[in-house]
Design goal:
The chain is an alpha/beta fold. It has helices at 4-11, 47-50, 59-71, 82-95, 108-123, 140-144, 179-194, 221-232, 286-289, 304-319, 322-341, 371-383, 409-425; strands spanning 26-30, 33-36, 41-44, 100-105, 127-131, 160-164, 202-205, 235-239, 266-269, 280-285, 347-353, 356-361, 386-387, 389-391, 398-401. 37% of the residues lie in helices and 16% in strands.
């Protein structure tokens, strides 16, 4: 009999990556655990790339999906859609953006595409500032603003993209500086860059870089950038696809760590809000959102079923204070992982916030990235019953840990123990 892996390879593109030497078929999940086709049970510390934000098979979400599917599955944005309006009202209020409007998409990639369309149309400029080591999606325009070679398959672009320092605190020419000096140097770099270009439409930035290995600048960098951007009329787009909805624990949105100069002009979101359902979106002020001078609709964005899931998931998250849980349990997990890392020469740094943690691996005694070790730890963790991710701009040498926000202290300790064994084995 032909295996599912062989069938996959026969019809799916080679560039659609699979984790593990023996790829896993996930068949079902519950809470923070999933099972594969062979009956193996795993503690899930990656949640389908930070997407199963709340829990697997969360009864409140599955019930909402089932009930809505029994009424109507699809109508498009050409008709009034009660679940879409209800979720938009809640997201607009939570966003912190004054007089906000919300447009729903099916993914974070599409959300960032929409934000770029809005920014370039509103500013009448195709020039975009992006951060080095960034990732914003898979589409032609999103790839064009991605500052990570491993996820940028073409240099062709509808945009002119200029890359700014600041997304990576502990590598690069400013790594040796204090936080205050780091911010000052990055702001000076931005000022200098703007002196060499024409009008710029927007700066797009992830408050914590996801695919880049959960790197981030000191708090306040983007607030300092915002003061410069405002002088030039340049918009700030905060890509909250991975940082939104309380995952960082300390804040509901990643931009709030940089909020001294006010909220961003636009905010993009996706992943966790649907708890596995396909939801993305853009929040912007009415002035920016309504500036499109042509028709635009979404066939699948704002689907009644996905909106019902989003409402149920957001309600559960807020009612059970999962942001607070991410802060408490994530804080314990990071502390535990840092203690483990201190005893492993291959661990360069344990970084992150809340339940968004990166472990960067190097060749011991050097500062050189070690992607082979990252792959080996990924395999060893799976053998121990733990699923994690990997990423990083330096040859994919960062272990990415992002469990559902309902993670318990006992599960955090269990996952840390498996990781400790995997790191020592490698």
């Amino acid at each position: 009999m032909t295996s599912l892996y062989d069938r996959h390879r026969a019809v799916i593109p080679d560039w659609v990556a699979l984790y593990y030497k023996q790829p896993v078929e996930i068949t079902h999940g519950e809470g923070r655990h999933v099972w594969d086709a062979d009956g193996n049970r795993y503690l899930d510390f990656f949640g389908g790339i930070l997407t199963t934000m709340t829990a697997h098979a969360l009864p409140e979400v599955t019930k909402a999906v089932s009930e809505q599917a029994g009424r109507i599955i699809h109508s498009s944005t050409l008709y009034l859609n009660r679940p879409m309006v209800e979720l938009a009202e809640r997201v607009a209020t939570l966003s912190g953006i004054p007089d906000a409007r919300v447009f729903f998409t099916t993914s974070g990639t599409e959300a960032n595409d929409t934000a770029l369309l809005l920014a370039t149309g509103h500013r009448r400029s195709n020039q975009i500032l992006a951060m080095r080591n960034s990732y914003h999606g898979r589409s032609f325009s999103a790839v064009a603003i991605t500052g990570n070679r491993g996820w940028s398959p073409t240099s062709l672009s509808p945009l002119q993209t200029l890359y700014v320092h600041g997304g990576v605190r502990t590598r690069g020419p400013y790594a040796h500086l204090s936080d205050a000096q780091f911010i000052e140097a990055c702001v000076a770099d931005l000022e200098d860059l703007l002196g060499h270009t024409r009008d710029v439409a927007a700066l797009i930035a992830e408050p914590i870089q996801g695919v880049g290995g959960f790197t981030s600048p000191p708090d306040g960098l983007y607030a300092a950038f915002r003061e410069v951007l405002d002088r030039h009329g340049i918009l700030w787009i905060s890509d909250e696809v991975q940082t939104g909805w309380g995952r960082t624990g300390e804040h509901f949105w990643g931009w709030q760590a940089h909020g001294e100069s006010g909220p961003p002009d636009m905010l993009t979101f996706a992943k966790g809000i649907g708890n596995g359902m396909s939801i993305g979106g853009v929040v912007a002020s009415a002035e920016i959102m309504n500036s499109l001078d042509a028709n635009s609709i979404s066939t699948f964005g704002g689907s009644p079923v996905t909106m019902a899931a989003g409402i149920a998931n957001l309600s559960y998250l807020l009612e059970h204070d999962l942001q607070g849980n991410a802060r408490r349990v994530g804080g314990l997990l990071i502390e535990r992982l840092r203690a483990i890392g201190a005893g492993v020469p291959a661990v360069r740094e344990v970084r992150g916030r809340g339940l968004m943690v990166g472990i960067e691996l190097i060749k011991p005694g050097t500062d050189e990235a070690n992607p082979d070790a990252a792959s080996a730890v990924l395999e060893a963790a799976r053998e121990g019953g733990l699923l994690i991710g990997k990423g990083g701009g330096h040859n994919t040498s960062v272990l990415r840990i992002a469990p559902p926000l309902s993670l318990t202290v006992a599960e955090a300790e269990e996952g840390a123990a498996i990781l400790e064994q995997a790191l020592h084995n490698v």
